[in-house]
UniProtKB/TrEMBL annotation:
Record's bilayer topology term: Multi-pass membrane protein
Organism of derivation: Paenisporosarcina quisquiliarum
Domain Polysaccharide chain length determinant N-terminal: 3-94
Source superkingdom: Bacteria
Family: Belongs to the CpsC/CapA family.
Entry's localization field: Cell membrane
Chief location category: membrane
One Gene Ontology CC term in the entry: plasma membrane
Family matches, as InterPro entries: Bact_polysacc_biosynth/exp, GNVR, LPS_length_determ_N
An annotated Gene Ontology molecular function: protein tyrosine kinase activity
Name under which the protein is recorded: Wzz/FepE/Etk N-terminal domain-containing protein
Residue ranges occupied by any Tyrosine-protein kinase G-rich domain in the UniProt entry: 140-194
Length: 242
């Protein structure tokens, strides 16, 4: 029984403060949409792939031992790709306004487990520049790895391409607004229960019963003003007669 009453009180509170909850949710969605569409700078992404293999293509070069060696080298290559030895040359060749350390933050290098393919991903405000940086990193690395590692086992598998209609990878306005809606809803519900908890005024007969813990035996109905005036006049007339 107590659980049923608690659920009733819960829904009664939500229904009473529904306007507040809706306003806070709509406000959160609006703010998130404005920030996402107007204030946040769109970021575009470009990716290129390089293949780590042996220079020779005969049967002896494709044995499991050579492939395992290439896989072990990939972890080293992932570090070299984002090193200043590579990025300084990329900045210089493309005449970028950013430094190598700033470019470092725009680059992600990863490879699938037990795969000889390395993905180089670049994010930039300019979609064309993102493509140029990704391809230039791959070409510079392919040249420099011969000097740094004294090996020639890197080939460009797939160069980055600029699509006709580039789409930013972030921000994601729809996702941001969905998160804002959830936050606004939770904030509205929490605030509704807080206001209800802090509101100790007695407004209805149910509030009286809840506060005193006593059953209500009777109610006094409110008297309309028109009837109140008539009643007062009758009382005055009776006093005058008396």
């Amino acid at each position: 029984m107590e659980e049923t009453i608690s659920l009733q009180e819960l829904f009664r509170t939500l229904r009473k403060r529904m306007k507040l909850i809706v306003i806070l949710t709509a406000l959160a969605i609006t703010i998130s949409g404005v920030i996402s569409f107007i204030f946040l700078t769109p970021i575009y992404q470009a990716s290129t792939q390089i293949l780590v293999n042996q220079e020779k293509v005969d049967a002896s070069a494709l044995n499991p031992a050579n492939i395992q060696t290439d896989l072990q080298l990939i972890n080293t290559y992932n570090v070299i790709i984002k090193s200043s030895a590579i990025l300084d040359k990329v900045v210089k060749e493309l005449d970028l306004n950013s430094s190598a350390s700033e470019l470092y933050g725009q680059i992600t290098v990863n490879s699938e487990q037990n795969s000889q393919v390395v993905n180089i991903t670049v994010q930039n405000e300019n979609p064309k520049l993102a493509v140029e940086i990704a391809n230039n990193i791959a070409s510079v690395f392919q040249e420099q790895v011969k000097i740094l590692m004294n090996v020639d086992n890197v080939n460009i598998l797939a160069a980055a391409q600029l699509p006709e209609n580039p789409m930013p990878v972030k921000p994601n306005p729809v996702l941001n607004m969905a998160i804002a809606a959830f936050v606004g809803l939770m904030l509205g519900v929490g605030l509704a229960f807080l206001i209800e908890y802090l509101d100790t005024t007695i407004k209805t007969e149910q509030d009286v019963e809840d506060s005193l813990g006593l059953p209500i035996l009777g109610l006094i109905s409110p008297i309309p003003d028109s009837e109140m005036v008539t009643t007062n006049q009758t009382i005055v007339q009776r006093r005058n007669r008396g």
